[in-house]
Design brief:
- With about 120 residues, this protein is mainly alpha-helical.
- It is built from 4 helices and no strands.
- It has one domain: Ferritin, CATH 1.20.1260.
- The mean pLDDT is about 95.
């Protein structure tokens, strides 16, 4: 059930927006975890540059997660917060456990970003 929202948006409009916003915030969480995993696992001659790059990315994605979740709340909804429920709603699948070559990790990140861009 969606509660009245403090910004005065029509209830029907809020009911249409909230599920889409929730899918977006769930997708962002998946991307956040993937960037953070890659940040932890990166190695090699470009370690410093890639380590910083991936950290900047997961920090930026976290800001977007927070903004979208707060918008859901402002519209009278409740953002999905359980990891298993988020995974179900995400448009991006969690990368399988394990380590990958850096090019493959970056390709996974790019693919996830493209998927998110298509959703938006």
């Amino acid at each position: 059930m969606i509660e009245d929202n403090p910004i005065g948006l029509d209830q029907e409009v809020a009911e249409q927006l909230i599920p889409t916003l929730d899918e977006i915030q769930c997708t962002l969480w998946t991307l956040y975890h993937q960037y953070q995993k890659h940040h932890w696992l990166v190695e090699g001659p470009q370690f410093n540059d890639l380590h910083v790059f991936l950290e900047e990315n997961y920090e930026e994605v976290h800001k977007y997660v927070d903004r979208v979740a707060e918008r859901i709340t402002a519209l009278g909804g409740i953002p999905t917060s359980a990891p298993d429920a988020q995974a179900e709603l995400s448009h991006v699948e969690h990368e399988p456990e394990g380590t990958y070559r850096i090019r493959q990790m970056l390709q996974h990140d790019l693919d996830a970003e493209r998927t998110l861009a298509q959703v938006l």
